[in-house]
Design brief:
alpha+beta, about 300 residues
């Protein structure tokens, strides 16, 4: 996976009134944004950008840390001293289908702590990644232009009632009711589709084998009963009687197995349809989602 790492050193207003602060910005993107540097310089005049190598230990996953706000205090302070900056900003963008995920973190090099974190799960739109970076940097610097917000709002439908969904949970449920696993496949759940189709097939094979054995035992029982009634030889009578009893027991056993497999098949069939409805395709309730945007504890 090709990644672009951008490190920028910039002087600008920070966090609502902090004047003349310097910022070291680390960007980790899956796809390059060619206009990033020029756009930031234009939108945040007075900033100075310098490219540097990324700091791998600083950009690892914060969620695995027990205390994310204070887990890298020593490293942040060391980097702050090395680059002579007041704050470090890290941005990461990951792409998935028609969406992209942006995470931003800002560290204070004086305390070494994480003071602000932001996560976005957003439907991609025209120049959406650049626009979201403008919004994020602008939020930090307390400079947000109305046009950036309007660009984001362009991805929202003005009238939700006019939205037509090509795939629905009910469509998935009805398909699985017709053919087990079809609804899951319709929803893109290939593993679930294989599981339900395999389970239903196994139960169906169980029914078939039980029926075949039941049918054989029934025929054998009737034949031995006929032979029992048509002979006068005591040994033959005893033998046919024993064989008839054995086949009758098999007949009863396979009949019970057939009923049990049929009951399980019906239950699994309905469960498969309900499951298809649960995991069926649904529209995003919010095309734009944001969380963890509040400040964390600033350890001075």
């Amino acid at each position: 996976m090709k990644k672009l790492f951008l490190v920028a050193l910039m002087s600008q207003t920070l966090l609502a009134g902090d004047q003349g602060k310097t910022i070291l910005m680390l960007n980790q993107f899956e796809n390059q944004i060619p206009e990033l540097s020029s756009t930031l310089e234009e939108n945040f005049s007075g900033s100075e950008f310098q490219f540097r190598e990324p700091i791998e230990k600083l950009i690892t996953d914060l969620d695995v840390e027990q205390y994310p706000a204070a887990s890298r205090m020593g490293l942040v302070k060391m980097v702050g001293n090395e680059y002579d900056v007041d704050y470090i900003i890290y941005n990461q963008i990951r792409n998935q289908d028609e969406r992209f995920y942006l995470e931003g973190q800002i560290f204070s090099t004086r305390s070494g702590g994480l003071i602000l974190r932001r996560k976005l799960d957003l439907l991609d739109y025209t120049k959406g990644q650049m626009n979201e970076l403008n919004l994020w940097v602008g939020e930090i610097m307390n400079i947000v232009y109305p046009g950036w917000i309007e660009n984001r709002e362009s991805i929202l439908f003005l009238d939700p009632d006019n939205i037509t969904y090509e795939k629905t949970p009910m469509g998935a449920a009805m398909r699985s009711l017709a053919v087990p696993g079809w609804g899951q496949m319709y929803s893109g759940k290939k593993l679930s589709a294989a599981f339900w189709a395999g389970l239903e097939s196994s139960l169906s094979v169980g029914i078939l084998l039980s029926f075949l054995n039941y049918n054989t035992a029934s025929k054998n029982f009737l034949q031995y009963q006929k032979d029992y009634n048509s002979t006068d030889d005591e040994k033959e009578i005893a033998r046919y009687r024993a064989l008839a009893i054995t086949e009758h027991a098999k007949h009863v056993r396979y009949n019970n197995l057939m009923i049990a497999f049929a009951s399980m098949t019906g239950t699994v069939w309905l469960s498969n349809s309900v499951h298809a409805w649960i995991v069926g395709p649904r529209p995003f309730q919010e095309i734009y989602r944001e969380w963890d945007s509040t400040r964390t504890v600033n350890v001075e």
